Amino acid sequence: MADLSRAERAPRPAAPSGTAAPMDRAARNARAAAAHQKARRVGPVFWISLAWLALVTLAAVFADVLGLAAPDQSDWMALKAPPGTGGHLLGTDPLGRDVLSRVIHGARVSLTVGITAPVIGVGLGLILGLAAGYYRGWIDEVIGIVIDSWLAIPGLVILLLFSVLYGGSLFMVCLSLGLLFIPSAARITRAATLSCTGREYVLAARALGASDFRIITREVFPNIIWPLLAFVMIDIPIAIVVEGSLSFLGLSVQAPTPSWGGMISEGREYLEAAPHISLIPTAVMFLTVLSFNLAGDAMRRRVSGGRGGAI
Amino acid sequence: MTLQTPVLEVQDLRTAFVTARGMLQAVDGVSFRLERGQILAIVGESGSGKSVLSRSILGLLPRGAETSATAQVLLNGQDLTRLPERQLRRLRGRRASMIFQDPMTSLNPTLSIGAQIVEVLVFHMGLAKAAARARAAELLRSVGLPEPGLQLDRYPHQLSGGMRQRVAIAIALACEPDLLIADEPTTALDVTVQAEILDLLRREVRERQMSMILITHDMGIVAGHADEVAVMYAGRIVERAPVRPLFAQTRMPYTRALLDSIPQLSAPAHGRLEAIGGRPPDLVEPPPGCSFEPRCRFATARCRADAPPLQGDGVHSFACWHPLR
């Protein structure tokens, strides 16, 4: 045993510096790798946000099989009941309807609008922006004028117009809100397309005989989709807040369909006596919007390699 | 002399850009022939029109650039300037393809190497996916990529600059084109990789009996890798000859100046490097005479008044009133 360890030590008599250096370097590399990992990691805030979003989404999807009271069923024995009383976990509203059930059913409206509207807006904006940025020339000019004119109409007017004409239809709420996202999406797409079309791989594709359609779908589109997805992530919470405001004003889906904005509105006369009626949907909306923003930020940082600020 | 049709014949090619100040004549009446199996180097400094010339040949000009109606670009006897875009697309990448300067940006970052080669083979050669993939691996092997089967599923960012340029070459060679245009293929690469890439290009051209236009600003590359040289200045060819006579007996002062500006190892240490004074002429309002006249040591009144035509004995031609002896 003693022999062996001596034999081991024997070949490197000048060891002190020789052994210390590699160990130092290994330790330094490990530290650097750990720091790098940490910068890349999304952190607990992301996971908490995601968990909340998953909870809200799952509850909304499975609302009918959760064994909740129907959202429009009144419990006349318990009007404005505070949370935790009379078998109502989050209490009841002025008509005795279960707040938990209504918040969950309201999530359906908020999430549907929150996701559909940005998808419609970014989808249409993408087509316009790609056409303008790729073909340039008169196409670019016409699309530019259309978008500038569209921006010159106040968004609220468009929303009011749609609600007067097609009041209460969920799809029309999504569509009218989606239309408002078109100009910014089109501009972002156009800018990204311009910088992408100037790249050498687009010229290389042309030199290989690719058609315009092929270049747009295979070369340009995959290279501009990330900033656009980040843009969708920013638009989702905006759409949820705007839908909430419309509901509050009674311009979104009509009663008795529950929506968060509508619930806040219904409870505003009882803020002193039964504050939970307004505050619970407000808190749920706040947490949902905050979670979308935090999760979106974390995703953008991750996509841009831990440096932040992708767009 | 055989009467074989040349792979490429360019007649009086003129390309101009519309600018705020007027028409910028980037290529001004260029004509040349390129025989099968030959490598023609086009040399010139930045802005001499060499890249625009190469793009004009394949009709890949940027917006605002136009080739004159009288120009002819005959690829295997077929005039590309008269072809509709749809037919031109079937030729690009198939009969003539191009390699670009910067392999960092000339490959699509979102597609795997394999997908980019397979796409060309499926589009032009009508191969089935599986056959195209096998052929792609073969191509990667032939351009010297180790483990070609594995490389197919990798993305451009996973490869070094030299490897990417090899991939770009594999894509360009995929359909066995007759003409390969290499636009400064090694400018963005390390010096050690440059030689490998140029050797690879020359070997492929020889083996496949293709023709190549090698665009460069480096006279050293010309000496080692081309058969013929065309020197461009201000949108015109000012001297054209096979490599040996050009280096042995330079006639045009501009070519001489280019050669003199190469640093020589044999030159005394701390000596002054010969540079060409002045700048290339304004191509919107070019001088009436020889375009090199303002920078030329030998210029006379005649050079200022008349532009010399490109003339010679069929082997060595030059555009100069006072050629060097």
UniProtKB/TrEMBL annotation, chain B:
User: Domain ABC transporter, which positions?
Assistant: 8-259
Pfam families in the cross-refs: ABC_tran, oligo_HPY
Q: Which SUPFAM superfamilies match?
A: P-loop containing nucleoside triphosphate hydrolases
One annotated Gene Ontology cellular component of this protein: plasma membrane
Top-rank taxon of the source lineage equals Bacteria
Q: Is Transport included in the keywords of this UniProt record?
A: yes
- Keywords recorded for this protein, A-Z: ATP-binding, Cell membrane, Membrane, Nucleotide-binding, Transport
Task: Output the InterPro entries linked to this UniProt entry.
Answer: AAA+_ATPase (IPR003593), ABC_Ni/Peptide_Import (IPR050388), ABC_transporter-like_ATP-bd (IPR003439), ABC_transporter-like_CS (IPR017871), Oligopep_ABC_C (IPR013563), P-loop_NTPase (IPR027417)
**What membrane topology does the annotation report for this chain?**
Peripheral membrane protein
The reply on keyword Cytoplasm is: no
Q: Which GO terms describe its molecular function?
A: ATP binding; ATP hydrolysis activity
The record's subcellular location field reads: Cell inner membrane
Q: Name one GO biological process term.
A: peptide transport
Which family does the similarity line name? Answer: Belongs to the ABC transporter superfamily.
| Protein name as catalogued | ABC transporter ATP-binding protein
Q: Which organism is it from?
A: Falsigemmobacter faecalis
